[in-house]
Specification:
This protein is an alpha/beta fold. Helices cover 43% and strands 20% of the residues. It folds into 3 domains: 125 residues, no CATH class; 236 residues, no CATH class; 216 residues, Alpha-Beta Plaits, CATH 3.30.70.1230.
Length: 602
């Protein structure tokens, strides 16, 4: 089932959407704390942004003669390359002459919209400015180069860098880089990415990263030379009214009053920076895991999920471990993205949770069956922990669907309600049953919470066993039995306070405890099977409970044998032992050393 769900999820668009959301969060977080400056580039970048004031001053559309003047002034200030990020496929003669005159001027074209560059522009001075957008219209990738194309088909950053360096052939350097540097259909968190050309993840920075001028600054000759000389200058629109704006990963997590978008000219600057750092480092700033790496991680997480579901002895531990592992995986993938390694989180996390969760669920169902099977075999009340312990040892304890006969050393606890006949004359049958169950319920909880087992109910009392079918050790079994008796003693006293307020008869009880060997095993036929506990030890505990009934001055009388007393680590707090001496009991030749446990609490 988990495998089928994973296969279905793999084909769902939800996977890529979730991966991109996590990626955007990491990228936004990453660049909030990034201190790497853009001025350390071999060819620093300056933006000439045409803003709203420029449009008011110079009108719209901008006159080509105005642009020619601005371009000539930037060239005169020593720009290493100038990228005109404005469509001018219908340029006036002055722009056509300017691009022929100035070999450092690059004119854009748009391949998707079929918009040409400035007429008569040489092929080596043309570049496409197409930006890659994912299905949600967010720019995360960059098409750095398209191989095997005519000379005019170059990306704007690549053309600008070749022009600034006066070194053609950078496209060949890109093509010689290792294949794993470039995105594939299944890279990172993508499912079926369009990977034509040489694409990388664009390490998008927040805006304002590069020195910026207004067109007015250039036209009024107020630009300092060091803002232009030896730099790559990009000219484009930043006025929001012209809508040359794009969403980036930061857009999803910006909470300003105006929707956060970045001008195209700013993104081309970031593309140019990414290209320079790629060539410097011979690797992109953000590396995306390949499809097979993602698959191996998902399979590894599936194996981890299986181990988490199966290895811990307790289901609760498995649940906690699965939750912790999922949190660590999520945090680890997030940190890797911060460090520039993008691994889609959704499928590895889904593999871990679905396979591990289904395994834990299966164990839960199996555990319920275990408990049902054990209770069928035992025919009595035991705690889930005891049932699980029995199931863990089932190969040693159970043969042919029943407990084999075996001799065990146990501590037996007998209880009986005093004066039940007298109380039954005062209450209706339903009220009597409710009254009795309140006392029996206290006794059952006291026993099962201490790894004991209620072997059978004896009308208005019960027989409980500590140490069978599985034992925690003779001493611990005896300690648990005595602790249960003291707990019953205290809780019945508190119950009587409530009964008195309700106008009901108070409840009194006798308890007998003895330790020794017994014979245990399944007794009966397939139609009716009981877990039997037989032997002198059981009889002695019963005799202690019923011994000298008139000799009781408290709410709950607890008598135990010297055999049990000798096993104890010590008596519970606020409890003292009062010896009764050796007393002969019915059905036994040898007398029992009897001890009464009394509370010393005020």
């Amino acid at each position: 089932m988990a495998s089928a769900l994973l296969m279905a999820l793999q084909q769902s668009p939800v996977v890529e959407t979730a991966n991109l959301l996590i990626y955007d969060l990491a990228i936004s977080w990453r660049h909030q704390n990034n201190e790497q400056a853009a001025e350390d580039l071999p060819w620093p970048i300056t933006i000439v942004g045409i803003n709203e004031d420029d449009l008011k001053d110079y009108g719209w559309p901008l006159d080509d003669n105005l642009l020619c003047t601005a371009l000539q002034r930037l060239d005169g200030l020593g720009a290493a390359a100038i990228g005109l990020d404005l469509y001018r496929d219908q340029a006036k003669p002055c722009l056509q002459e300017e691009i022929k005159r100035n070999p450092r001027l690059i004119s854009i074209r748009n391949e998707a919209a079929n918009i040409a560059a400035i007429p008569r522009a040489p092929a080596q001075q043309q570049a496409f400015n197409d930006l890659l957008m994912d299905s949600d219209r967010v720019v995360r990738r960059d098409l750095m180069h398209v191989g095997k194309q005519e000379e005019a088909i170059r990306s704007l950053p690549l053309r600008l860098l070749e022009t600034a360096q006066q070194m053609p052939g950078l496209d060949q350097r890109l093509e010689q880089m290792a294949d794993h540097h470039w995105l594939t259909e299944q890279s990172g968190g993508y499912q079926n990415n369009d990977t034509d050309g040489y694409q990388t993840m664009l390490p998008i920075y927040p805006p304002g990263r590069y020195p910026s001028l207004a067109l007015r600054d250039v036209m009024e000759n107020t630009v300092e030379e060091d803002m232009i000389r030896g730099r790559v200058v990009l000219i484009g629109y930043v006025a929001r009214s012209l809508r040359d704006l794009f969403e980036i990963p930061h857009s999803r997590f910006d909470h300003s009053s105006q929707f956060f978008e970045v001008p195209g000219v700013e993104l081309h600057g970031q593309r140019l920076e990414a290209l320079q750092r790629l060539l410097q480092n011979q690797a992109p700033q953000i590396t995306a895991a390949t499809g097979w790496q993602r698959l191996m991680l998902m399979l590894a997480m599936g194996v981890v999920g299986i181990l988490i579901a199966e290895r811990p002895t307790r289901i609760r531990r498995s649940v906690l471990l699965l939750s912790a592992t999922a949190a660590l995986l999520s945090a680890g993938v997030f940190v890797l993205t911060l460090e520039g390694i993008w691994i889609g989180l959704t499928m590895p996390l889904s593999g871990l949770v679905l396979i591990g969760g289904s395994g834990i669920l299966g164990r839960g169902v199996q555990s319920q069956r275990h408990q049902q099977e054990m209770r069928r075999l035992l025919g009595q009340t035991s705690s889930p922990a005891v049932a699980q312990q029995l199931w863990d040892h089932r190969e040693d304890l159970i043969k042919d669907g029943r407990f084999e006969g075996r001799e065990q050393y146990v501590t037996v606890l007998f209880t009986d309600t005093c004066n039940f006949t007298g109380v039954s004359e005062q209450l209706s049958p339903s009220a009597l049953m409710q009254w009795l169950n309140r006392g029996i319920g206290i006794s059952v909880n006291a026993v099962t919470s201490r790894s004991g087992m209620v072997n059978k109910f004896t009308g208005d009392g019960m027989l409980a066993v500590f140490g069978a079918p599985v034992s925690n050790g003779m001493v611990i079994d005896a300690d648990h039995a005595v602790a249960a008796a003291i707990d019953i003693q205290q809780r019945i006293t508190a119950l009587n306070t409530a009964l008195k307020k309700e106008g009901c008869p108070c409840l009194r009880m006798r308890i007998g405890i003895h330790s020794g060997p017994v014979l245990t095993g399944s007794l009966g036929s397939s139609e009716r099977l009981e877990y039997a506990v037989i032997g002198d030890t059981v009889n002695c505990a019963s005799r202690l409970e019923s011994l000298q009934k008139e000799r009781q001055d408290g709410v709950v009388r607890v008598l135990l044998s010297a055999e049990t007393h000798s096993l104890l680590h010590g008596l519970p707090d606020q409890t003292k032992a009062e010896p009764w001496g050796a007393i002969s009991v019915k059905g036994r030749q040898e007398p029992l050393e009897v001890i009464e446990l009394k509370s010393t609490a005020p």
